[in-house]
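Postdoc handover notes: sequence design on the structure in folder B. Input tokens:
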């Protein structure tokens, strides 16, 4: 074989092996999207991140765990007939509750009644475990759209995930609340997989400066290095897409916000394998309430 051709073959083989490793790294991955305060674009990022991951060929489930403020269905212009509360009551299976969204993303709609997860009856608890385990086998990546703040439910869902994406904006109040969230997670014993995502920045350099500031405080006071999970540029197309109830990665695929989300999605699945808890992500979530 000519030397030049042999070089290309080896390069293609290496690329194929890297792709295989990346897929193995991401299979079974769970990502919790949370924030220290509301109004930072958390749910919109969770929805568009899920779609970006699905477009890469992953089987994605988006769990709307923003208790009391569930709105992922609205952002995708979906009208679910059932929610997770129907599963808890034993009225519907989790497959019946799942709604097929854009690009094949499956949504498990949330409901205000989910605040009762901490007080499940024995029947509801066992039914939840059985139902959630049904999705484990056919899900590559799960994205939790968690609530904002430090409630027990938010912390429980976040701690069950492999990676925790804390959304913030450059404004001081948002940064203070984001750090408080990171601090609470670390104090709960979480020592891996926590990263910052900075929304509505004017430039990449501004996003890097924000992350650097939070990371320095984390290292100094928490002895923890906060990862950089990306950023999203200020983009008027995002608000337009929300009004139209179409995710911006679909409505405005060429905009700067879409490019940022796609970059973050690729980085999440191609980064070194995060330490995982034993068992599938859905089983772990169910186990939190046993």
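Designed sequence:
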């Amino acid at each position: 074989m000519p030397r030049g051709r042999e070089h290309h073959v080896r390069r293609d083989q290496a690329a194929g092996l890297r792709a295989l490793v990346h897929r193995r790294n991401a299979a079974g991955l769970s990502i919790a999207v949370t924030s220290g305060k509301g109004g930072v674009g958390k749910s919109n990022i969770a929805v568009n991140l899920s779609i970006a991951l699905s477009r890469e060929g992953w089987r994605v489930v988006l769990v709307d765990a923003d208790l009391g403020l569930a709105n992922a269905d609205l952002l995708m212009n979906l009208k679910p007939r059932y929610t997770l509360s129907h599963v808890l009551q034993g009225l519907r299976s989790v497959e019946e509750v799942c709604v097929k969204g854009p690009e094949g993303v499956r949504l498990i709609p949330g409901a205000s009644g989910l605040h009762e997860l901490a007080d499940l009856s024995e029947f509801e608890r066992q039914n939840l475990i059985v139902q959630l385990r049904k999705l484990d086998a056919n899900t590559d990546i799960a994205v939790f759209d968690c609530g904002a703040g430090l409630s027990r439910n938010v912390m429980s869902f976040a701690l069950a995930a492999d990676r925790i994406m804390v959304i913030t904006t450059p404004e001081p109040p948002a940064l203070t609340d984001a750090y408080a969230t990171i601090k609470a997670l670390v104090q709960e014993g979480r020592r891996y997989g926590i990263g910052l995502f900075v929304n509505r920045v004017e430039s990449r350099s501004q996003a890097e400066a924000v992350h650097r500031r939070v990371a320095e405080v984390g290292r100094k006071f928490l002895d923890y290095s906060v990862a950089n999970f990306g950023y999203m540029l200020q983009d008027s197309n995002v608000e337009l897409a929300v009004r139209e109830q179409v995710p911006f990665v679909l409505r405005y695929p060429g905009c700067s916000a879409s490019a940022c989300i796609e970059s973050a999605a690729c980085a999440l699945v191609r980064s070194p394998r995060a330490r995982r808890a034993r068992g599938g992500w859905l089983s772990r979530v169910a186990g939190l309430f046993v």
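Context for whoever picks this up: The chain has one domain: 27-287. Don't rerun without checking with the PI first.
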